[in-house]
Amino acid sequence: MPNRPEALIDAFVTAWNKADADALAELFVEDADFVNVVGMWWTSRSQIRYNHAYGFRHMFSETTLSPLKVSARYLNDDVAVLHLLSSLTGQVKPSGERAGDRTAVLTFTVARQSDNHWLVVSAQNTDRVPGAQTFISNGSELTPGNYERRSVREEPMK
Fold it and tell me: What are phi and psi of 75, to 5 degrees?
């Protein structure tokens, strides 16, 4: 079990790259929340394990998750918020073909447990859409949208 919050990121990446849903789920408290990239909201470690196992069998079996940037913000001695900017390669489309690479930001709220180890209480995975400011709904699908003609940029990374 991780003995510092940042070690949870390393353990998550390792579990992902081994397609090990059991190891990934063990990083979460029993009643953890996880919101995936399309807004599915899982509310227990068992749902997190089940849905990641499904993903590893059907779409992510050959993926590599690579950390690009990690940050930790301690809210107090026992709670921290972690951000992981990552790239994902090797996803398989429903057709069996390789999908393109993706970049995402994963946000983890983590808490120190009574045994002094850290576990994830809540997580959210958000895909980045280059140049988009938001999604626009036409009623049946979402399309990335931009309200400015110029490219939207973030503040430079520190």
Answer: -85, -30
- Which residue spans within 90-158 are E strands per DSSP? 102-112, 118-127, 134-137, 142-145
pTM of the model: 0.90
Instruction: Report which residue type is found at 28.
Output: F
Tell me whether strands 64-76 and 79-89 are parallel, antiparallel or unpaired. Answer: antiparallel
- Is residue 38 within 8 Å of 135, Cβ to Cβ? no
CA 92, distance to chain mean position in Å, is: 18
Please give the pLDDT value at position 76: 97
Question: Which of 48, 27, 26 lies closest to 36 in space, CA to CA?
Answer: 48
- Based on the number of CB atoms within 10 Å of its own CB, is 143 exposed (0-12), middle (13-18) or buried (19 or more)? exposed
pLDDT band for 157, please (50, 70, 90 cuts). Answer: low
Q: Using CA atoms, how far apart are residues 10 and 23, in angstroms rounded to an integer?
A: 12
Q: Quote the pLDDT of residue 14.
A: 98
Task: Give the CA count within 13 Å in the CB-facing half-sphere of 126.
Answer: 13
Instruction: Say if residue 68's pLDDT is above 60.
Output: yes
